[in-house]
Amino acid sequence: MTEQQNRVDKFKRSPCPVACTLDIIGDKWTLLVVRDLFAGKKTYSEFQHSPEKIPTNILADRLKRLVKNGIIVKEPYQSHPVRYQYLLTAKGRELGLVLKAMLQWGEKHIPGSKALMHPVQDKREELKS
Amino acid sequence: MTEQQNRVDKFKRSPCPVACTLDIIGDKWTLLVVRDLFAGKKTYSEFQHSPEKIPTNILADRLKRLVKNGIIVKEPYQSHPVRYQYLLTAKGRELGLVLKAMLQWGEKHIPGSKALMHPVQDKREELKS
DNA sequence: AGCAGTTAATTGCAAATTGCAAGTAACTGC
DNA sequence: GCAGTTACTTGCAATTTGCAATTAACTGCT
Q: For chain A, which has fewer Cβ within 10 Å, the N-terminal or C-terminal residue?
């Protein structure tokens, strides 16, 4: 088996980028965690307290998968009671467009739904130290 | 119970448009059917023959849900052997941006994945390099 | 007329995933 | 020393998924 075949084999269902993306984020919870990260949430308990009330075992699983797929990183922000924070990587931040498209579709087509805040705000000021 | 409460109650998890959108399209298969519709596929068997090989009971279920949510319509395109076609509504076509965002994210971040075709092709673009 | 083939499903069942409750471990603050 | 917080894990029932087989209604071939 060649390297190319190895690469092909790792596509779970097909080489279609939509299918591959869905293999990573195609479920009811993953993008809600990403949404929370865009909203500035960082810790396990912050995610747990979001209005959708994600079950704790699902949250633990999704965080693991997001780390495995390079969308977030997990790092301790304090040792003594060791506490972890989860941060979006560049790859994860680029899911902002997916989130934004869903948010806009939802706001337009699901009457009564209302965004608490928008991800990927157009802020042109990031070069400040 | 007031009308407002009725409206609130119908949100499955929260009024967040991202969560509401995920309640409709947040699974591994639904958006693949929508992708196929963007690719010009219209019939049950065309969806079945896509490379991901969606199980037939899942396909039947997802088509029902897409109809129920106003994303597609089902109509006979011939009577005698009565045959059905499924067509995107305006609401469904507006999922093109979600699909496009996923496609671009996948192409960029999943090495080897390659789009067979792009939904929502922007006719006016890509003159610069 | 008989039979294979196509389309659009439904049914049955095992396996996997989800959702809920409870429990755990390490620590803090009173 | 005891309640509270954080970040989980475990157990288990319920739901969903995936696969195979089957069905119903027709067409086209011989």
A: C
Judge whether A97 lies within some domain.
yes
State how many domains chain B has.
Answer: 1
Q: What are the CA-CA distances from residue A61 to residues A33, A57, B12 (Å)? A: 11, 6, 22
CATH code, B73: 1.10.10.10
For residue A37, the distance in angstroms to the closest alpha carbon of chain B comes to 13
Q: Which amino acid is at A113?
A: S
pLDDT for the residue B9 = 54
Nearest CA to B27 among B70, B58, B68?
B58
Alpha-carbon gap, residue A109 to A95, rounded angstroms: 21
Distance CA B26, CA B43 (A): 22
Q: Is residue A56 part of a domain?
A: yes
Residue A106 placed within a domain: no
pLDDT mean by block of 10 residues, chain A; 129 residues = 49 91 96 96 94 94 95 90 92 97 95 71 45
Q: How far is the CA of B129 from the C1' of D26 (A)?
A: 54
Structure tokens at A11: 């596509």
Where in the sequence is the domain holding A40, given as residue range(s)?
13-101
